[in-house]
Design brief:
Layout lengths: L3 E3 L2 E6 L2 E2 L1 H14 L5 E5 L3 H16 L3 E7 L2 H10 L4 E5 L8 E7 L8 H13 L12 E4 L1 H13 L6 H7 L2 E5 L8 H8 L3 E5 L19 H10 L3 E5 L6 E4 L9 H12 L8 E4 L5 H8 L4 E4 L3 H11 L3 E4 L3 E4 L8 H12 L6 H7 L4 E8 L6 H11 L3 E3 L4 E4 L4 E6 L5 E8 L2 H16 L1
Parallel strand pairs: 2-3, 4-5, 4-6, 5-8, 9-10, 9-11, 13-14, 13-15
Antiparallel strand pairs: 1-2, 2-7, 6-7, 11-12, 15-16, 17-21, 18-19, 19-20, 20-21
Helix pairs in contact: 1-2, 1-4, 3-5, 9-12
Length: about 450
């Protein structure tokens, strides 16, 4: 198995493409590119992450570095702390939504955002060309345990966001089921909900890395929490992915409302609070429901390539207050520039508490279409022959080749692109009915496979 290297970091199956020697080499190369200062180390709940984290912290300390060990925290917590504490950077040991046998690294720059493509290219070059990477020693080298401090600082930031009416939320005393997939949000997400006076039921909140469901919080992976919401008569349920940057919502009837709706609800939480002139920013694969919401509040939508750093870069460029991706990843600039399931949870509570309505009623009140997400495991690329063939057969109103190929009509679209993190080609389609979306995907996959 080869190691997957992309702007999102590195990922591989442990002991079959990824081992500690690779992790150390990439980590040392990253530090070589950073300014002097503290380096944050964090991880998700995967069991092999503990060994990797302990070895890396000790190796960096032995190389006379200032190491801040955050232990198991969500990726957005690590991002927030790097920026807030002015660290030189951060390394997160995680494979995000990949299955439990995978692990990897994400690299946080000193601004709390993932490294951009220019630095990523330098990182890969350094790893490829140097057999031994020597770091400059820091006279103040030490190893600091920072787990509780990191969690408390992040929670304090979220509960004090200007658009969050914490007292109004507390008065609702919502009953909530939390599914943390036994990973990075197992500790911090229940703590956040308790600060909002929620009555919570914890599900898969042991942080032991045993994924008792599919790692991605997609509807077909959420049957257990759906049953638990009904059983406990809860107001809603929420589920995250292993590194805590994506949020999925389950209504009071046990129905997953689809992660595409997370961003729409969170954006409306802001738009109902204040009139803004800046656009919303999202990627090419996100639901057109965000465009319909934007029309309602008379704001524009700017789209960019898939990938958090691409969304963040565009948000900064256009002065965007809120953006994200249709996978349940919400970015609020007031908190920090990173997808954050905790910020999304606060925005969700804030929006729900504005009216005396249920979660299903809230979902019914926002625009939504039928989106279908599929993929093919392949090393094939999206070449000009495929593009020409699919354009001719589909005859779209508009075609966008900014990130793969997206064919667009007035009330439907299909986006086909090679994944940044797995050896797959993704097929996302959206229309007014599920069957229309499936037809787009099935026909596209048939053309691609020829």
């Amino acid at each position: 198995m080869t190691l997957i290297k992309s702007i999102s970091g590195i990922r591989g199956i442990v002991n079959n493409g990824l081992d500690y020697s690779i992790i150390e080499k990439f980590a040392f190369a990253f530090l070589k590119l950073q300014k002097p200062g503290g380096i944050l180390i964090a991880r998700d709940g995967r069991s092999h992450g503990l060994e990797f984290s302990q070895k890396l912290c000790e190796s960096l300390k032995a190389a006379n570095q200032i190491v801040i060990d955050c232990g198991i925290v969500p990726t957005p917590t690590a991002q927030f702390i790097v920026e807030n504490n002015n660290y030189a950077g951060g390394i997160i040991i995680t494979a995000s939504h990949n299955p439990t046998e995978w692990n990897g690294l994400k690299f946080i720059d000193s601004d709390g955002c993932f490294i951009k493509s220019e630095k990523y290219k330098k990182l890969i070059s350094l790893v490829s060309n140097e057999t031994h990477i020597q770091l400059s020693p820091n006279p103040n080298s030490q190893l600091i345990d920072y787990n509780n401090e990191a969690i408390n600082k992040h929670l304090n930031n979220i509960t004090n966001l200007s658009l969050i009416d914490i007292e109004r939320i507390k008065n609702k005393e919502y009953k909530v089921v939390v599914d943390a997939v036994n990973s990075s949000t197992s500790k911090i997400l229940p703590q956040l909900l308790k600060q909002f006076s929620c009555d919570i039921t914890e599900l898969n909140c042991n942080a032991d890395g045993h994924f008792n469901r599919g790692a991605e919080p997609l509807p077909h992976n959420l049957s257990e929490i759906s049953k638990k919401v009904i059983e406990t008569k809860s107001d809603f349920g929420i589920a995250t992915d292993p590194d805590g940057d994506r949020l999925a919502i389950i209504d009071e009837k046990g129905n997953p409302i689809g992660e595409e709706s997370t961003l729409v609800i969170c954006c409306e939480s802001l738009l109902m609070n204040k009139k803004i002139n800046s656009p919303l920013v999202t990627n090419l694969s996100t639901s057109m429901a965000i465009d319909k919401l934007a029309e309602k509040y008379n704001v524009n939508v700017v789209r960019c390539n898939v990938g958090e750093i691409n969304v963040v870069t565009k948000m900064k460029e256009v002065g965007c207050l809120i953006g994200g991706e249709g996978n349940g990843g919400v970015i609020l600039s007031e908190s920090h520039y990173g997808r954050d399931s905790l910020v999304a949870t606060a925005l969700l509570l804030n929006r729900l508490s504005m009216n005396d309505i249920t979660m299903s009623e809230l979902h019914s009140s926002i625009p939504h279409y039928e989106i279908v997400k599929d993929f093919i495991k392949t090393d094939k690329t999206i070449d000009s022959k495929f593009i020409n063939t699919i354009e001719k057969q589909f005859n779209p109103d508009e075609m966008n080749q900014m990130d793969g190929i997206k064919l667009i009509w007035g009330n439907k679209w299909i986006h086909i692109r090679k994944s940044n993190t797995e050896p797959i080609v993704r097929f996302y389609a959206e229309a007014e009915t599920t069957q229309e979306s499936l037809d787009l995907i099935n026909k596209s996959k048939e053309i691609f496979s020829k």
